[in-house]
Automatic annotation (TrEMBL):
Pfam families registered for this protein in UniProt: Epimerase
Domain of life: Eukaryota
Species the sequence originates in: Xylaria multiplex
Keyword Oxidoreductase: yes
Protein name: NAD-dependent epimerase/dehydratase domain-containing protein
Length: 351
């Protein structure tokens, strides 16, 4: 695929267009010269994304919003994918892991992935690439071991725990199991069918960075950005995040999605950990006290709890992100830039 010449207006399908990552991904796809077609469960949410992109200068003619109430239904997604050159599968039952049963969370994740692959197959010769946004959650068992995890690792226990404990397995195992099961199906499909299109899976850690569309209120800020909001709001400097502290800017994940689609000869059959930095509440506070002194950021314990280069500390569970850097030839957005950009965005929620 090329954003130039006869391919300039090829269309890329993005599932879950109204999601945190999807907005920045759509922006990057349009910037690269492609059309965007996005699926949403709620048409109004999708139209809001379209309107925002239009305000940024992109043509409404290059943005389609398709309402699909149940992405697990193959026929609707096959129609949405018709004529597309790539599919980015971003839709995921994240918000529902605490409300749906663990088995249902897994079912939705697996069946939606199967639906995407069916749609890609039915699309025929126009389809060049399918990129799955999996998760770092597919790489480890709980609790984490004190080592760096890589693309060679897999979660091996959460599906069994859900099978054994049912609803008592809880949201964490539901999420880990759903991501693992969906990605396993993804790779089994490739092994069984050897499709003509490229297949790539990304394993991002906690998302950070400014969204395309503001959250409605500070209460809607996702957990992965909650430490940033607490620091910007002048609250006590928070301690470590749950499970691990590794983060990645959503703009970098969007870049990896597009790179994977445009470079199937390098990306086909590959998994890529997307993780750039380990900071945390104290690192955020130290950066903002220095770079944005007008904020009322608490001092905390300066310099404590993180490495000066924001890399994973030795002897602590974390993620090896070097494969993606070597493959693309491009490093991640510097952590301090992500912190500043997100803090500037979050100022709109201050009283």
């Amino acid at each position: 695929m090329s954003p130039n010449g006869e391919h300039a207006k090829q269309t890329i399908l993005i599932t879950g267009l109204n999601g945190y990552l999807a907005g920045r991904t759509a922006e990057l796809v349009l910037q690269a010269g492609y059309r965007v077609r996005g699926t949403v469960r709620n048409k109004l949410a999708g139209q809001k994304v379209k309107a925002t992109l239009c305000r940024l200068g992109y043509s409404a003619n290059n943005i389609d919003v398709v309402q699909i109430s149940d992405i697990c239904q193959h026929e609707a997604l096959e129609l949405a994918a018709d004529g597309c050159c790539a599919i980015f599968h971003l839709a995921s039952p994240l918000a529902e892991i605490w409300t749906l049963s663990p088995s249902e969370v897994i079912r939705v994740a697996v069946e939606s992935t199967a639906s995407v692959l069916s749609a890609a197959t039915k699309t025929g010769r126009t389809m060049n690439s399918v990129v799955l946004v999996s998760s770092a959650a597919a790489l480890f068992d709980l609790p984490l071991e004190n080592r760096l995890y890589s693309e060679k690792d897999w979660n091996t226990t959460s599906e069994e725990i859900v099978d054994r404990d049912g609803d008592k397995a809880g949201g964490f195992h539901a999420y880990l199991a759903s991501k693992t099961a969906a990605e396993k199906l993804f790779w089994k499909f490739r092994d069984d069918h050897r499709p003509s299109f490229g297949m790539t899976a990304l394993q991002p850690t906690y998302f950070i960075g400014p969204p395309l569309i503001p959250w409605k209120t500070s209460g809607d800020i996702p957990y992965s950005n909650s430490d940033f909001w607490k620091v910007v709001a002048g609250e006590e400097v928070p301690g470590p995040m749950m499970i691990y502290g590794d983060t990645v800017d959503i703009r970098d994940v969007a870049r990896m999605l597009l790179w994977s689609a445009l470079n199937p000869q390098k990306a086909d059959g590959e998994r890529f950990v997307c993780s750039s930095a380990v900071g945390g509440g104290q690192a955020i506070a130290d950066i903002l006290r220095k770079r944005m002194p007008s904020l009322q950021v608490q001092r905390g314990r300066p310099g404590q709890g993180y490495s000066p280069d924001y890399k994973p500390a030795s002897g602590v569970g974390g993620f090896d992100f070097n494969k993606a850097v070597l493959a693309t030839g491009e490093d991640w957005i510097p952590y301090e830039q992500s912190v500043i950009d997100l803090a500037q965005f979050l100022q709109r929620y201050l009283p």
